[in-house]
């Protein structure tokens, strides 16, 4: 039987990914702006940062820089897109909306990667097909949920046509 984890770096990457999923989910579910939100949010940030950085030490799939490394770059961009407004909140008027939007999609990307990983383990299935299926499905669900939750999170008024 083939092993899923091939190195200490791979194990570290998986642990950070699971911790990111746990903390990211809590941050999305719980009330925003509380001490708990901030503490768990920073934990999510550091877990995601180390998980993404560790991905650049993993080359077992293709033997070289590949599409998952590109995805890690996008993940780092959404993560930083969510944290930069926090670091400069006194200078950025809409910092909460930027922070919330980027961090939310950071978690969506994490779930897309998770389900891609799970679906590619199904024997006899197309690797790229399963990655595309998982990524598209999770992103569509994530967008739908965001469009419902943003009114609560950002106190955005619903337009007359959306009601």
Which terms would index this structure?
single chain, 163 residues, 5 helices
Overall description:
- With 163 residues, the protein is an all-alpha fold.
- The protein has one domain (8-154).
- Helices cover 72% and strands 0% of the residues.
- The protein contains 5 helices and no strands.
- The longest helix has 28 residues, at 127-154.
Write the layout of secondary structure elements.
Elements: H1 8-29, H2 35-55, H3 67-87, H4 95-119, H5 127-154
Helix pairs in contact: 1-2, 1-4, 2-3, 3-4, 4-5
What is the strand content? under 5%
Mean pLDDT level: 85
The string of secondary-structure elements, in order, is HHHHH
The residue fraction in helices comes out at over 70%
Query: How many domains make up the coordinates?
Result: 1
The first-to-last residue Cα distance is: 54 Å
**How would you sum up the major sheet?**
none
SS-based class? mainly alpha
Rough outline? globular
Number of strands: 0
Q: Count of DSSP helices?
A: 5
Low confidence ranges:
none
Q: Please compute the radius of gyration using only Cα atoms.
A: 17 Å
Short characterization:
The chain is an all-alpha fold and 163 residues long. The chain contains five helices and no strands. The termini are far apart.
